[in-house]
Amino acid sequence: MRIAIDMDEVIADFSEKDLRTFNKLFNKEVTQEEVGNGYVTQKYPEYEDAMVFIRNNADFFRDMKVMPDSKRVIERLAKKHEIFIVTAAMHFSNSIHGKIDWLKSNFPFIDQKHYVFCGDKSIINTDYLIDDSLENLRVFSGKGLLFSAYHNLDKDYDYIRVNNWLEVEAYFEEKGLI
Amino acid sequence: MRIAIDMDEVIADFSEKDLRTFNKLFNKEVTQEEVGNGYVTQKYPEYEDAMVFIRNNADFFRDMKVMPDSKRVIERLAKKHEIFIVTAAMHFSNSIHGKIDWLKSNFPFIDQKHYVFCGDKSIINTDYLIDDSLENLRVFSGKGLLFSAYHNLDKDYDYIRVNNWLEVEAYFEEKGLI
Question: For residue B122, which residues of chain A lie inside 8 Å, CB to CB?
């Protein structure tokens, strides 16, 4: 079986790095609780343009935290299935090298040939896609799992929701797939 | 309909740039006729390691020639179909920015969201793939068209061969698809 896995907010904690960077560069102490469901620039739109520049930098990705349990669960899945990391880096094209380095360093067991950088996930031909973006899941032709992130918490969607990697593991265990 | 199109040797004349660069940097005057079916480094393997470094550079792609008729034919196809540029840049990861710039400048009518960088084209979910690589066509799930390149000229394969973009145009015209 073939499983495509999104990167930002699914295996890499983009929100945490984004807020940490915002606080550091603009000398603030904003918490995710204050931000609510979404990104810090939705609360502080006057910083949006600056943050777009800041995110579009290879270094922005280098010390991004790995989502809890993702490495262990994906390593388990990879023993039985083909794993592809499918990430939209076209908006932040300078981030591609940072993302490649991050993946090589944190998920060394995934073949670099299985990295996919694309802007439209309708192109992806796999059985599963684990993604935090409704937009991506809607155009995907296989089975989509919605990975919880701040920006998608406030609504009920027609996808199976997984709140963390333990739930992903339980989902595939229940199906007898790991 | 959705059509995936490879980049090197299909819309971008990689071989020509490769040989031109080799001749310039190593002060030679090798012709493609002398090289035969393949790349210059197959004839001069002692330069292989150096050429791998040289190709893995954003600038290597910037002045690559556009394949004759490709722009006009793809622009025609794009009026009726979704076009994706699918290129394997994982081996030459530094080349990604050069490739993005080249595509934006030479094929501005293709949405950047339709660029796909991947190492394994089995992931691609489109109706067609136009590619010079047998390895890519073999793993592709849709209909493959083999685009002629020096390295694939010497064998007969089980794919429909297109020798240039006029033949691609004729193929889709005959099917009533443009």
Answer: 125
Q: Do B118 and A116 touch (CB under 8 A)?
A: yes
Place of tokens 């010497």: B154
**B6 catalytically annotated:** yes
**Count of domains for chain B:** 2
Residues of A in contact with B99 (CB under 8 A): none
CB contact under 8 A, B96 and A96: yes
Does residue B54 sit in the same domain as residue B81?
Answer: no
Looking up residue B77, the CATH number of its domain turns out to be 3.40.50.1000
Q: What is the pLDDT along chain B (178 residues), one digit of tens a residue?
A: 999 999 999 999 999 999 999 999 999 999 999 999 889 999 999 999 999 889 888 789 889 999 999 999 999 999 999 999 999 876 667 788 889 999 999 999 999 999 999 999 999 999 999 999 999 999 999 999 999 999 999 877 789 999 999 999 999 999 999 9
Angle between helices A95-106 and B95-106 (to 10 degrees): 140
The pLDDT tens digits of the residues spanning A82-129 come to 999 999 876 667 788 889 999 999 999 999 999 999 999 999 999 999
| pLDDT tens by residue, B62-111 | 899 999 999 999 999 999 999 999 998 766 677 888 899 999 999 999 99
Contact A112 B96 (CB under 8 A): no
Contacts of B111 in chain A (CB under 8 A): 119
Catalytic residue from among B8, B13, B18, B131:
B8
CB A10 within 8 A of CB A131: yes
Range of the domain at A27: 14-62
**DSSP-derived 3-state class of residue A28:** coil
Instruction: Note whether B100 contacts A93, CB cutoff 8 Å.
Output: yes
CA distance B53 to B21: 12
d(CA B57, CA B21): 12
CA of A147 to nearest chain B CA: how many angstroms apart?
21
Domain boundary among A22, A42, A62: A62
Interface check A1 vs B, CB under 8 A:
no
Instruction: Report ipTM (2 d.p.).
Output: 0.88
- Phi then psi for A164, rounded to 5 degrees? -165, 180
Give the Cα separation of A2 and A140 in Å (integer): 14
